[in-house]
Amino acid sequence: MHKLNDYVSIVSENEISELRLIAEKLKGRRILNINSTAVGGGVAEILNNMIPLLKDMEIDAAWEVIKGGEQFYAVTKKFHNALHGKQETFTDEEYQLYLDTVASNAPQLSLDSDIVFVHDPQPAALIRERSKHNNRWVWRCHIDLSQRDQNLWNFLRPIVEKYDASVFSAPAFAQGLPNRQILISPSIDPLSDKNKELPDETIQKILEQFQIDPRRPIVTQVSRFDYLKDPIGVIAAYRLVKPYVDCQLVLAGGAADDDPEGAKVLAEVREKAASDPDIHILCLHPSSHIEINALQRASTVILQKSLKEGFGLTVSEGLWKGKPVIAGAVGGIPLQITHKYSGILTRSIEGTAYWLKQLLQSPAFCKKLGDNGREHVRNNFLLTRHLKDYLLLFLSLSRDGENVIYL
Ligand code: UDP
């Protein structure tokens, strides 16, 4: 478990002292995070990294997960897709199932915490419990809402506007809500197993374990098996490049408890890959952080060919490892990549294939993109910056008697 002081090796001592100063004012405050999965996906990744550091600063941070049945996750996955702009229709029964499932979780959750910090739409309706408590509620939306389905938004908006504040990852995602809207981008933890430096032997051993040839170029996408991550488009792009460069493709993914579509997408991906021995489809256990780290470090080029994306932590993970990343120009990805400076942004299979071929043939350009990308992540997307943003938000919402402290 890391301590705040460990980060002095990566960011300045000033940044760490500043965090301690702010945290001092929040000592002992109970901050409860709530989401819908303990493993899989970016939200779980961030909470796993953040909670121990908040505790190290003597803030009483906790993380609890709501539970639902198969039907609940089917509805909330439809919410997820519709908020990203997919055409979906919802019945009154589906809305009621959502509200009932969320309400049935309430008695098990510590909703009397000083701040209840609710992540994404799945647990959002917990706000209906707020009148029982005298505390502050924040909705943290990790989704790109810029093209959200209007009917679903008509249902969700009256729910989320009851929160004291909403947090979005990028300016384009914010909505005309009457409550405070705050922009805070996500982050990666440079000291976690997912991102720490690894000895060369570990990387080589992991390549061997997955029967990946270390002597030929490796192109990797790490993602849940989700249509919005476009693994099938990745295979199509690889196929366009393969006649020119003898590369290997790694599609590494795992399941998330709140994503019921994974098995279907994985079956389709397997079918498309057919029997190509150079396409490695890896279904990893949720604890495979070192394996993912090693695969990213062993890669010549990293892809994140998303069609829709909230932020896309995997992009920062790749850039932090000094790798050239080719990614879809969607959602929060352009915050992380400036085209041709700190990575490559694409909008099609052909565009992805064009740039993949270029990069596989230009090691010097790869290095330049990777170096610039790593600095951009150091300055913007590390956990320490994220912690500071959250602490300031908590402080601005704190109650001291009846006086709200605004910075
Ligand atoms: N991830 C993982 N195992 C997998 C697939 C993804 O640990 O099999 C991690 C990945 O390294 C990243 C996070 O899950 O840290 C995914 O976050 P991102 O924002 O890229 O996408 P999301 O899944 O939240 O849409």
Structural class: alpha/beta
Order of helices and strands: HEHEHHEEHEEHEHEHEHEHEHEHHHEE
The mean pLDDT is: 95
Radius of gyration: 21 Å
Distance between the termini: 31 Å
**How many H/I helical runs?**
14
Helix content: 40-55%
Give the strand order, joined by hyphens, for the main sheet: 2-1-3-4-5-6
Give the cofactors and ligands: uridine-5'-diphosphate
Uncertain residue ranges: 401-407
What spatial form do the alpha-carbon principal axes imply?
globular
Amount of beta strand = 5-15%
The overall strand count is 14
Reported for the largest beta sheet, the result is: 6 strands, parallel
What does this structure look like?
The chain is of the alpha/beta class and 407 residues long. It is 41% helix and 15% strand. The protein has 14 helices and 14 strands. The protein has helices at residues 13-24, 42-56, 70-83, 92-105, 150-160, 200-209, 231-241, 262-273, 289-298, 313-320, 333-336, 349-360, 363-380, 383-397; strands spanning 30-35, 60-65, 115-119, 136-140, 165-168, 180-183, 218-222, 248-253, 279-283, 301-304, 325-328, 344-346, 399-400, 403-404. It has a 6-stranded parallel beta sheet with strand order 2-1-3-4-5-6, covered by helices on one side. Helix 6 crosses helix 9 (289-298). The chain is globular. The model is unreliable at 401-407 (pLDDT under 50). Bound molecules: uridine-5'-diphosphate.
